[in-house]
Design brief:
about 625 residues; alpha+beta; five-stranded antiparallel sheet
Length: about 625
């Protein structure tokens, strides 16, 4: 049978299909007279050109252009990852819980309602803008064209002439944020990008090293000037000071953080990544409530704007573990854990990565998953507190991309005999089943994930690993989106216990935990490093959720803190990756009057280890440190 004349071969048809989005950018650029590189650059900074199957971002943004219609996203979120513990993580204060309300449509700023405006300008129905990537690109082009017109600028073919329109597209209401956003878009245009999207679309933005935008356009837009006075941020982000109150409000109670003198009085060892479980405006109200809690920074998803609330020298109440609080900086990211299709903008990832890299350099914090913690990897302080620990930012935070933006991508550091693995699944392809995103027991929508599930045997039909801290009765872990009991996370390192074909076992919560690690599509990288193991003669070693000093270290007048082991054991023959070494330490600060504050240091030495999904501590007296390949 002869082929029809003019018919394209199957591979050519597939090629054309995968280029639909690239064509959509070209068509929309021509229709609205927006330079194609500007349209591509803005879209990359919004979504990396991904469509997310029409699902909204954490701020209700849709499609490659992140056109926002936010109220529905805010209405569907559960508060604070279902945890009920006190984020201060110390018994000197009562636990506090937030009260959040979904704002009315009239209360939402324009940056959260760009999709309805795009519908008005383009004549495209809102539902089509949400679900059709090509329509979404047209809607974004319409918004850029409107911005250019409102600024009185010509519809030039020179991308540099669109700097002000790009800044306005961000929705930022202050000069610094608008300029930072525009600078990042034009950095993408300058350097170029090439990527295959989540829908298999190949998109290319050729580098244009000649583009030189007029930054003065933003200064003439009449935006407000944010208060950057006293902020501790890199120059490459927009940052303003929105202070958390340090006030006494009766009965010896005070809020919402503690004054200190870090790193002079105690080191800063960790940065803790959170999500807000609320909108930007609601979150800022909470951190300014003297009766509530405080963290150091909040990051806005739409444009990466940063608000600093507490000086890095001071101790925020955010992590649910007083030892970690005293030695960490807390970053809240506008978002919701239990909305699997919610996604963060590229600009927020970039702003956060720059901030973390800046803080890590300033305070000598290693850029690894033992020190850049998710709130979900902070340990409980006592057996009773394990269930109350928070689970954000959860399995949908893209740790691999985050660390790549910090210039520390996860890479193999050894061969298969190195003794360790670094968890590193392909985020887009890795889609484990979760439940409970909307209703308990109901299956969540499939979505890319940074997490890998672990089983008792090398089979997906085997029971999940048990977490006796979460379930003292010995029940297996579940697939619940907030269940951390049987979950490895991207970037975490574990000691290899055994290999069996496409499966790898690691030591985890005192057990041999199996995860699928196919040779053709590995979910972990081979690595080597230092591990701890019980000293000879010890069959098991206690595990702790904080590294507190021995009672002899406390001066008169300060009650020694209990050194309470968690219900887990590090057993003979097992190894766990070493994260750091520290002497026992306790920050005593039970009163508003800082004259009583004191850092108690002991002689006991602790090692931080990656014990399960969360980190933990063991006493140096109980373990030996050895090379993983030994």
């Amino acid at each position: 049978m002869f082929p029809l004349l003019g018919a394209a071969p199957p591979d050519a048809a597939a090629e054309a299909s995968s280029a639909r989005l690239q064509s959509a950018f070209a068509t929309a650029a021509a229709e609205y007279r927006v330079p194609q590189s500007v349209l591509l650059g803005v879209s990359y900074l919004q979504s990396r050109w991904d469509a997310h199957d029409g699902a909204p971002s954490v701020t209700g943004g849709y499609g490659p252009m992140h056109l926002t219609d936010a109220r529905a996203a805010l209405a569907g979120a559960a508060a604070h990852s279902e945890a009920e513990g006190d984020p201060r993580g110390d018994s000197s204060r009562r636990a506090l819980a937030p009260t959040t309300k979904v704002p009315r449509e009239s209360q939402l700023p324009a940056r959260l309602k760009s999709l309805p405006r795009a519908a008005e300008l383009s004549g495209i129905p809102p539902e089509e803008l949400r679900t059709d990537p090509a329509a979404n690109v047209r809607g974004g082009a319409a918004l850029l064209a409107e911005a250019q017109k409102s600024l009185g600028k010509p519809f030039s073919s020179n991308p540099a002439d669109w700097y002000g329109a790009v800044a306005k597209f961000s929705g930022a209401d202050d000069t610094a944020t608008a300029a930072t956003y525009a600078n990042d878009v034009f950095a993408v245009i300058h350097d170029g990008e090439r990527r295959t999207t989540d829908a298999g679309q190949r998109v290319n933005l050729a580098a244009d090293r000649s583009v030189k935008p007029d930054a003065a356009q933003v200064r003439r837009m009449g935006l407000r000037a944010s208060d950057e006075t006293g902020t501790e941020c890199p120059r490459t982000v927009s940052c303003e000071w929105v202070p958390a109150p340090y006030e006494e409000f009766g009965d010896g109670d005070y809020g919402n953080h503690d004054l200190a003198d870090r790193p002079n009085d105690q080191s800063i060892d960790y940065i803790v990544v959170h999500d807000t479980e609320g909108s930007w405006d609601t979150t800022l109200k909470l951190v300014q409530d003297k009766t509530y809690l405080a963290w150091h920074y909040t990051l806005r998803s739409t444009d990466g704007h940063i608000a600093q609330h507490v000086k890095a020298k001071d101790v925020g109440w955010h992590a649910g573990n007083w030892y970690v609080n005293a030695k960490s900086v807390g970053l809240e990211h506008e978002g919701f854990l239990a909305q699997p299709d919610s996604w963060y903008t590229e600009e927020m990832y970039r702003a956060s990565a720059r901030l973390v890299k800046y803080l890590a350099k300033k305070y000598d914090i290693p850029l690894d998953r033992q020190h850049i913690l998710g709130h979900d990897t902070v340990p409980g302080t006592t057996p009773a507190g394990i269930k109350a620990m928070h689970t954000d930012p959860g399995p949908y935070w893209d740790w691999a991309h985050y660390f790549t933006l910090m210039g520390k991508p996860f890479e193999p550091s050894a061969g298969p005999r190195g003794g360790l693995v670094t968890v590193d699944p392909d985020y887009a392809v890795n889609r484990p089943t979760y439940t409970g995103c909307v209703k308990a027991g109901d299956t969540c929508e499939p979505h890319g994930s940074s997490a890998v599930r672990v089983y008792t045997e090398p089979s997906e039909d085997a029971p999940l690993i048990k977490d006796i801290g979460l379930r003292p009765g010995g029940e297996p872990s579940t697939t619940g989106v907030n269940d951390m009991g049987a979950r490895l996370s991207t970037g975490q390192q574990y000691a290899v216990a055994e290999r069996d074909g496409d499966w790898t076992a690691v030591w985890y919560l005192g057990q041999k935990a199996w995860f699928k690690n196919p040779r053709k599509q590995p979910t972990a990288l081979n690595a080597a490093g230092l591990v701890v193991e019980p000293k000879p003669g010890l069959t098991d070693v206690p595990v702790y959720g904080r590294a507190y000093p021995e009672k002899e270290a406390y001066p008169a007048g300060i009650t020694p803190q209990a050194i309470t082991p968690l219900p887990y054991k590090l057993l003979e023959g097992q190894r766990y990756v070493l994260g750091g070494r520290t002497n026992g330490e306790y920050f005593y600060s039970p009163t508003f009057d800082t004259t009583s504050h004191r850092v108690v240091r002991g002689n006991d030495v602790y090692y931080e280890i990656q014990f399960g999904h969360r980190i933990a501590y063991v006493r140096a007296a109980d373990v030996n440190v050895v090379e993983s390949a030994a």
